[in-house]
Amino acid sequence: MGESDVRRGGGSLSFYAAIVAEERGGWRTFGERTVYDNRWVRLGLVDVEAPNGERWEYHVVHLDRIAVALVVDDQDRVLMSWRYRFVTEQWGYELLGGMVDAGEDAAGTAAREAEEESGWRPVGEPELLVSFEPLPGQVTAPVDVFLWRGAERIGEPTDTEEVGRVEWVPLSRVPGLAQRRELLGSGTLVALLYYLASRGGAAATG
Predict the structure, then answer these.
(1) Which helix (H) or strand (E) holds 194?
(2) Alpha-helical regions (H) of the chain
(3) Torsion angle, CA of 174/176/180/184, rounded to 10 degrees?
(4) Domain range spanning residue 16?
(5) Which of residues 20, 36, 62 is at a domain's end?
(6) Does 7 score more than 60 pLDDT?
(7) What's the pLDDT score for residue 164?
(8) The pLDDT value given to residue 119
(9) How many domains does the chain have?
(10) Which pLDDT tens digit goes with each residue over 116-138?
């Protein structure tokens, strides 16, 4: 039995599929096969049809959800780590965070990662600041950013793999750091610029 033989509320399944495709900007998918998979990343080939009718297998990278901690203090500073990323060969500042483990909520991950990477424990109730997908054209990588307005020092960092120089950085430096490409990754850049915009922008551009 073909698509045209299946009726839904007086219309054909092909008509229903056309409506779905229209809702998705004309894109249609027909399944996905995994070509590589491990704990950190999964690479899939999606059978996709573009709005112009062309159909092919499209590479899609799947990453786990990431939770980021944006911790600010009463001196208008943000807790970050100055570190090196060998993939892009860059030094710069990053907010603290990491991959959400199975069974763990995103806010809990952000708080735990901040503590492990910095030795500072966020205090108070977290606020979900913003959620986004950084590369929606080819990658699924959901990012949740949580805001805390304070932290307490509990000791030295315990995550030796994510080693960096922990600093309280004045928020007034953020625009200048962004301009010099010294804010690493969308999780840091989007979070900080969104925070500044949501409260009326940066006080300065140092």
Answers:
(1) helix 186-198
(2) 13-23, 106-118, 174-179, 186-198
(3) 0
(4) 11-62
(5) 62
(6) no
(7) 82
(8) 95
(9) 2
(10) 999 999 999 999 999 999 999 99
Q: Does one domain contain both 44 and 128?
A: no
This prediction's pTM: 0.84
What H or E segment, with its residue span, contains residue 110?
helix 106-118
State whether 88 and 124 are in the same domain. Answer: yes
Q: Both 101 and 27 in a single domain?
A: no
Residues written for the chain: 206
Strand order in the sheet with 127-132: 96-99, 66-71, 143-148, 127-132
Q: Is residue 82 part of a domain?
A: yes
Q: Does the residue 1 lie in any domain?
A: no
Q: Residue 167: pLDDT band by 50, 70, 90 thresholds?
A: very high
Q: Are residues 123 and 41 in the same domain?
A: no
**C-alpha closest to that of 95 among 73, 118, 75:** 118
pLDDT exceeds cutoff 80 at 16: no
The answer to whether residue 5 sits within a structural domain is no
Q: Are 124 and 171 within one domain?
A: yes
- Amino acid symbol at 92: G
Eight-state DSSP code of residue 72:
B
10 Å CB burial of residue 134 (0-12, 13-18, 19+) is middle
